[in-house]
Design a protein that fits this description.
By secondary structure, the chain is mostly helical. The protein has helices spanning 8-44, 50-82, 84-101, 108-136, 142-166, 175-181, 185-194, 199-208, 221-243, 248-256, 263-289, 291-311, 320-331, 333-345, 351-379, 384-391, 393-396, 398-401. The longest helix is centred in the N-terminal third of the chain and has 37 residues, at 8-44. 58% of the residues are buried.
């Protein structure tokens, strides 16, 4: 590691900028689950139905996931080519500028295109931010730092939910939320102009004297097995989160929206509070119990709690929000785990590319899964609890796929 070339203040600024980038990333991820039905009611007018609202929720989520998958792969690769800091700044500008443009849309199709473009930046932020911080902080502190960063993303969802609770999002009042989502563009400009670059990346580029690595390098024989395993392992929590867990919010809106416009935001807040704690603890759990054991236990817990959330409680019942909190905590342990695990697998020269591909390739599967869940939702006549329960089975696959992981993770020093 070459972190000694950065002062403590510079390393703190790197961590702060990456955490803020992920916090705003979380706001973008949480925006449509809490606003989707209001946007659809506003833009569809008399053509709106409950089934149409659920179908458009799935389409918006799928568009974001497709964009995030492509952004994570190509903007992750850009981080290996031009530097972590510059690629991170570009990612922040992508998701903030295109989110702000959502305030002016007049049709569902326009919003759909913008959600895809927002996704490009959302996907690019994670691999570049994680790679930058991993290379600027010591191995001893990496689980703690990775936990803080992962928690930052869900803290963004939590902050958004509290704002939406205080200022309810309705069919007559939702455009302000998209104006707000454009504010992080200021952070993107600051990152491009002032944030220091990873000394490890700079040193590697000087010593290697090779052209920037193409994505196909990840599929060379020496990395192929690792790359495939990383993609599959990262896909499980992503598909589970968007094809199963996220249905709780439009479900809460449908059940309680007519009498309590802020109930959906309260639901998202309880989930995000659990998720903020869970994503932090996931990194620690990976360190304490080992990579395989911790992933297996998280998979079992996420499966059971998601089924419980959709089958043994419901919106407005006293037990609903406590179970939502617990499900958010356990299901997001995965993401703190991934923040530690994925950067360990790939050498510096291709770390952001590898992490970005692994983390975001799962979003292609997620986009397909969400669209299938949307079709299932329509087939079941808009039954949120049955859709969520069926899709919860995705989490159980983690019990099997974790055995594809290397018995002992690679070290960051393997450069």
């Amino acid at each position: 590691m070459n972190e000694s070339k950065l002062s403590r203040g510079a390393r703190i600024s790197v961590l702060l900028a990456a955490c803020l980038g992920l916090l705003f990333d979380g706001i973008e991820l949480g925006l449509m689950p809490v606003a989707s039905l209001s946007v659809s009611k506003s833009l569809l007018g008399d053509a709106y139905t409950s089934e149409a609202g659920g179908d458009w929720f799935a389409k918006f989520a799928a568009a974001l996931m497709f964009g995030a998958a492509l952004g994570g792969i190509f903007l992750g690769n850009l981080g290996d080519r031009i530097g972590r800091t510059r690629a991170m700044g570009i990612s922040i500008l992508f998701y903030s500028v295109f989110a702000a443009m959502g305030a002016w849309v007049q049709t569902q199709e326009q919003m759909l295109i913008l959600r895809f473009l927002v996704g490009l930046g959302v996907g690019g932020m994670w691999p570049n931010g994680i790679a930058l911080v991993a290379e600027c902080w010591s191995s001893a502190s990496r689980p703690l730092v990775s936990g803080v960063m992962s928690a930052g993303l869900n803290l963004g969802i939590l902050l958004l939910s509290q704002l939406a609770r205080l200022c309810p999002i309705t069919p007559d009042s939702w455009r302000w939320l998209f104006y707000l989502a454009g504010i992080p563009a200021v952070l993107g400009i600051v990152v491009l102009a002032a944030l220091p670059e990873s000394p490890t990346w700079l040193a590697n580029r000087r010593v290697a004297r090779r052209p920037p690595p193409p994505i196909r390098e990840l599929f060379r024989p020496e990395l192929l097995k690792i790359t495939i395993a990383a993609i599959i392992i990262a896909s499980i929590p992503m598909v589970g989160a968007w094809s199963a867990s996220k249905w709780m919010i439009p479900w809460a809106d449908k059940v309680a929206g007519a009498t309590d416009a802020g109930y959906k935001a309260t639901t998202q807040g309880w989930w995000a509070l659990g998720a903020t704690l869970g994503s932090f603890m996931g990194a620690q759990l990976a360190s304490w119990l080992g990579r395989r054991t911790s992933y297996l236990l998280i998979s079992l817990g996420a499966t059971l709690l998601t089924i419980t959330m959709f089958q043994w409680t419901a919106p407005l019942q006293p037990s609903f929000h406590p179970i939502v909190f617990a499900q958010g905590f356990v299901a997001t342990l995965f993401f703190g785990w991934l923040a530690v695990f994925l950067p360990e697998l790939f050498p510096t020269r291709i770390r952001a590319t590898g992490s970005g591909l692994a983390y975001n390739a799962g979003r292609f599967a997620t986009a397909v899964g969400v669209l299938l869940a949307g079709s299932l939702f329509a087939y079941l006549g808009g039954d949120y609890s049955r859709v969520g329960t069926i899709c919860a089975s995705v989490y159980s696959l983690g019990v099997l796929v974790i055995w594809l992981a290397p018995a002992k993770s690679e070290e960051l020093s393997r450069d």
